[in-house]
Amino acid sequence: MSGLPPTLKKILITEKTGLTKLATAWRALEQKVSHALPFQTYDWNLCWWKIFNDNSLLHRNLPVIAAIFNGNELVAVMPLTNSHIGFQRIFLYRYVRPFGADPNLTELRIPLALPGYEQVILGMWEELARHEMFGLTEFQIIHQSHQVKLFLLNNHALHPLTERNIPNYILHLNSDWPSFKSQLKRNIKESLRRCYNSLKRDSLQMEFVVFQGREQVQRHLPAFYALHRHRAAAANTVEHPDYFSNPRHQAFLSLLLDSPFASRMYLFCLKLNQNIVALRLGFRMNDELYLYYSGYDLAYARYSVMTTVLAETIQWAFQQDIRRINLSVGEDISKTRWNPEVIQYTEYQCVRNSWWRRYTGEQIFHLRQIKKNLRPQLRSVK
């Protein structure tokens, strides 16, 4: 990046108190970045560290917070986990990756940066690679595809082993609901018509309710977990695991609700004849709404209740002057049918660019793939 101000300062914060020291500056940066993601917020990352930071005799996690300051202003931040396998400072294997290494709770793990500082914060990966003296370190880098590809093209201290594309789907709300609906494809218009007509035909009285903030969301979390479990059991549809069967995952949401992040949390609820039949969790980020996990009662699946929840949520968003709805990552028909914009992210697994590290990293990746392919066979044997 050319034309950087002389006041620019790049630092790596490695002490465990580094997160809390950045709280004020980090939260201020969130307000300056257009379309910030919930996973980039200070509160999400602090809660994540408290719940998912694991240490044992031979496994140690340390925070590495890469931060860019322009004078006294924080302009980019990237929280990383430095995982060591070995004794103390002598390690055989190390994994440096963004906060959020969890079973799909943190859906996008990218740095938070003002425009123009993306390549500077990505450049911190090369500095980390140059500091490696012993053992094998694997680096995981995730960003918008064009940004991370440009970084790897211009920085040769890292060698990419693998590449995974992550599509993210965005709805733009530029007018009003009737105009938005008129521009939809015929199949989704017909699907919406059937959704509402089927409820009327069977004399099911519909009510759409929005729960917001700590008390309301906390009160309805048991229903959300139960309906999410129902959704995971659905057959003949896109497979979704029960992500909240793990008590730690529920503890993570509870911790978020005990933080300032709670004001961003919403549950979008569909009631039929006063019974809750579908819920979807969402996070409001200024003028953008990020739609997260959902669940529904399988007894009402024939009414396509989740399609109705999304349609009602979009109408609510127009009323709230929300300009974008993020449908989250991962390609499936429930997102693509709405004709959204697609933002491509790419995840790379990298090692330092030396011949033995490249070879060793490739062998480890190959063994991982064998283990991954064996898991379904082992489950079927059980």
Automatic annotation (TrEMBL):
It comes from the Bacteria. Keywords: Transferase. Gene3D superfamilies: 3.40.630.30. Residues 188-332 form the BioF2-like acetyltransferase domain. One of its GO terms (molecular function) is transferase activity. Pfam families: Acetyltransf_6. InterPro entries: Acyl_CoA_acyltransferase, BioF2-like_GNAT_dom. This is GNAT family N-acetyltransferase.
